[in-house]
């Protein structure tokens, strides 16, 4: 980052800026800024106009993942150390929190004194993953996270502000976002759904976890699964521990406006039951997730008693039932691809398939370093499970 540049706009403004109106009375100039009727945040734009007599340019800071939040304290430390900003001069709004039994800063306005103001709204969160090993702000692992942040600035600082926002993207905490899966259950007389919460795993870089070749496959899967009234099947296979389930935990958080129905391994055989299809007909435009699906996707020609489950899957994914119900299927399995029914691989029915495997040595080292394990002991390809559970220290979730 470059040093601050002191400019002469505080009193008279620079007439060359599109947002500067030097001949307008102050009261009229301030009316150009939006009112803050429903927010506790200071009226940043009006304060900027009042000081610099110019309507500011604005950059809304964001991250590449909606589960990533900026860490307020890390940002303030950076502003102090790199830009010599005194946070004691900030305009803040404090709110009392019963959990930490203290007042915390809910909103903050920083004036860097050079034609740049930063506004941020914050909240407390203890349900986080902290790969960067940042220090918590309060007891019981509570972090002060920035939910919204905007940089208001004079136009000449555009490049500087973009660089500043790029620096902020490195100062993040991963919040434990979750979604609800509907799990298939069975009573004595009927099937029913029961909701379960699934947390999003800490995957900020798919290529780092699964290799660069997987990214295009993921993009294709997401595009199809987020298409309304669609059908088809996704087949994910590979050796145990290679990350199939880990990826599904990530994938389902990216699916919007569809019911996610989880079929546990001990219920997979129920797909062949005559009563199961009428039950599914009540869940149109849903996505079925079937783990360990080996027993219901094997080639019908290899058995003297062909499985009705395969026929039902084929009909759901590309038959008349599929046309009517618009359901999609994600199936995982460990068996060899040559043993499954070839009809499942037919073009038009298959959305995508991918074989998960061990990461090569270099990729394993990079991911291991990222997770804080170091890489000195890695000399051969490793599965995600092996990388995550080095030294017997199991991470937050089982990798499969």
Automatic annotation (TrEMBL):
Listed GO MF terms: ATP binding; ATP hydrolysis activity
Gene3D superfamilies, A to Z: P-loop containing nucleotide triphosphate hydrolases
Coiled-coil annotated residue ranges, if any: none
Species lineage: Eukaryota, Metazoa, Spiralia, Gnathifera, Rotifera
Stored InterPro entries: ATPase_AAA_core (IPR003959), P-loop_NTPase (IPR027417)
Domain (ATPase AAA-type core): residue spans on this chain: 234-356
Organism: Adineta steineri
Listed name of the protein: ATPase AAA-type core domain-containing protein
Pfam families, A to Z: AAA
SUPFAM superfamilies: P-loop containing nucleoside triphosphate hydrolases
